[in-house]
Write a structure and sequence with these properties.
Layout: E1 8-13, H1 19-28, E2 32-37, H2 43-49, E3 53-56, E4 82-85, H3 87-95, E5 99-115, E6 120-121, E7 124-125, E8 136-148, E9 154-158, E10 166-169, E11 174-177, H4 189-199, H5 208-223, E12 227-232, H6 236-248, E13 253-259, H7 267-278, E14 283-287, H8 289-296, H9 302-324, E15 327-331, H10 336-341, E16 369-371, H11 379-388, H12 393-396, H13 416-435, E17 444-458, E18 461-474, E19 482-483, H14 488-501, E20 505-510
Parallel strand pairs: 1-2, 1-3, 3-4, 4-11, 12-13, 12-15, 13-14, 15-16, 18-20
Antiparallel strand pairs: 5-8, 5-9, 6-7, 9-10, 10-11, 17-18, 18-19
């Protein structure tokens, strides 16, 4: 097993909301890759990174407009394989002398891909293993289109509306795809990405055990003998972060558990007990519920909620750091999906989906340096790392729980009365899932209390009560998700329990929205 520096693939991000899925597919093949925004991936950076291959992502820009975002043209002279996806294909064609036009109509959704030639490089073929039935289904999402390939490229696949759906310059090992191989709607996409990696000579040397050893050494090199405090939420992300830092820096870590009054029923007690029984790490529980709920009074906008909670987290940690004394670093369980849905690092190109309370750095006056050892991992990789570190199963298998807690499951103003109702409904829903032994089949499940009332009839009397929405999804990495297809009897039984046992709710709905277009959480 390779324990040194792995082979590296660089993904240059032009702002696609699914850029992270490119990395996800490659990680599944044990190929180490990093995503960096185009405005940070300049010549000096690329030279220092020493990639074995480069992928240019999709994005919302148009190469038909002035000052379009682009990579350094020098990458095409590096002699390494490069793959352009959607906008990445278009920018490659434009830089190398081809033509791209803004179409009258965009192309969005499924398309049928058919082969055109072999596209061979040595023994490998970008489309190797495809077209057993003469065609493949792919996912298109573009407005512009290549109208004339650059010199040296030839068509290797086309669709009805995209005559240059896949292009290859075999001599220079340059490829362009108009469709998105990274999304699940392109079933053959993973095979195409792995074929590209094979063409580039990747051997799949990136493993979780190797990552664990490297990140532990990096923590030791970066932090040395300094003290670290870690924000513990009880979820898998913060638990793995704490275990990792404790493994790297024994005796230097203090965990802080903040009860912001937005937790599930009995969450604070169960997390504190579970953590203390599993780890020999100092733990400081803090009840800041009064402070948080007072600050959220009158706030309905979801972004303002998240930012208010994030600001108060910083305030609490500032106070706790002063009590601990000597702490110079703050550890957080920030993950890849957190980063992509928040403003991109380095003022990158991606749109903000929602602000995460643990993304975006720390104010200078806090005096603590941020440590985010999981920042480049997806949720399932974090679970794998947790098992590598020997964490108890009750930590590793827990469903995700958002940092802002129930505040983002209570649209509108957050009040103690609403939280009490929501906690009861949420507890019943999760109890039902456990009772039917469905917990491990579901990525995340929770209740949402809507800020609307509806007329009902209970006990021969009229009611005007709140509506509750149940949400349960399946996912691999949190970047995309589908609703869990409960049986009707389960939903009926659960709705009956909630209406009968929770005073204030007279209507229960089930959310069948996928991600995209929705997000997993409601706010």
């Amino acid at each position: 097993m390779n324990t040194g520096t792995p082979q590296k693939l660089l993904i240059i991000d032009f702002g696609s909301q699914v850029t992270q899925l490119i990395a996800r597919r490659l990680r599944e093949a044990n190929i180490y890759c990093e995503i960096h925004p185009f405005n940070a991936a300049r010549e000096e950076f690329i030279d220092a990174f020493e990639p074995q291959a480069i992928i240019l992502s999709g994005g919302p820009a148009s190469v038909t407009q002035p000052d379009f975002p682009c990579p350094p043209e020098s990458i095409y002279e590096l002699g390494i394989p490069i793959l352009g996806i959607c906008y990445g294909q278009q920018v490659m064609m434009r830089q190398l002398g081809g033509d791209v036009s803004q179409g009258r109509h965009g192309e969005f959704g499924r398309a049928t891909l058919r082969p055109e030639g072999a596209g061979l490089i040595g023994r490998h073929n970008l489309m190797e293993g495809l077209f057993a039935d003469g065609h493949e289904e792919v996912w298109m999402s573009h407005g512009d289109s290549v109208t004339q390939p650059a010199a040296g490229f030839r068509v290797i696949a086309r669709s009805q509306n995209a005559p240059f759906a896949a292009l290859a310059d075999n001599e220079r090992h340059l490829f362009g795809l108009q469709f998105h191989p990274e999304v699940y709607h392109t079933p053959c996409g993973t095979r195409i990405l792995r074929n590209f990696a094979h063409i580039a000579g990747f051997t799949g040397d990136w493993t979780m055990s190797a990552f664990c050893r490297r990140i532990i050494q990096k923590l030791r090199d970066d932090i040395g003998g300094a003290k670290v405090i870690c924000g513990l939420s009880g979820g898998v992300d913060s638990a793995v972060t704490a275990a990792l830092i404790h493994r790297a820096l024994p005796g230097q870590l203090t965990c802080v558990f903040v009860d912001h009054g937005l937790l599930r029923d009995n969450e604070a007690e169960s997390v504190t007990t579970m953590f203390r029984e599993s780890f020999n790490i100092p733990l400081s529980p803090i009840d800041a519920s009064t402070q948080f709920l007072a600050a959220l009074r009158g706030i309905s906008d979801p972004e303002t909620k998240r930012k208010t909670i994030g600001r108060l987290f910083i305030d609490v940690f500032r106070e706790e750091a002063q009590k601990i004394g000597g702490a110079t670093h703050l550890a957080q369980g920030t993950l890849y999906p957190d980063v992509i849905e928040s403003p991109s690092a380095g003022d990158g190109p991606s749109a903000t989906i929602k602000s995460h309370h643990n993304v975006g750095g720390l104010p200078a006056e806090l005096g603590l340096e941020l440590v985010e050892p999981l920042r480049e991992l997806f949720k399932d990789e974090v679970r794998e790392l947790g098992r590598e570190l020997g964490l108890p199963d009750e930590f590793v298998r827990r469903h995700p729980f958002p940092g802002p807690g129930l505040a983002i499951r209570c649209p509108g103003e957050v009040t103690p009365a609403k939280l009490a109702i929501l906690r009861q409904a949420d507890t019943i829903f999760l109890d039902q899932i456990d009772k039917h032994r469905l917990y491990d089949d579901i990525w995340q499940a929770f209740a949402v209390l809507l800020p609307v009332n509806s007329v009902g009839v209970m006990g021969d009397g009229r009611t005007y009560g709140a509506a509750c929405v149940l949400r349960a999804v399946t996912s691999v990495d949190g970047m995309t998700a589908d609703f869990y297809d409960f049986e009707g009897t389960f939903l009926s039984e659960t709705a009956t329990r909630i209406v009968n046992e929770v005073r204030g709710i007279n209507r229960v709905l089930y959310d069948i929205t996928s991600k995209p277009p929705g997000t997993i959480e409601w706010e």
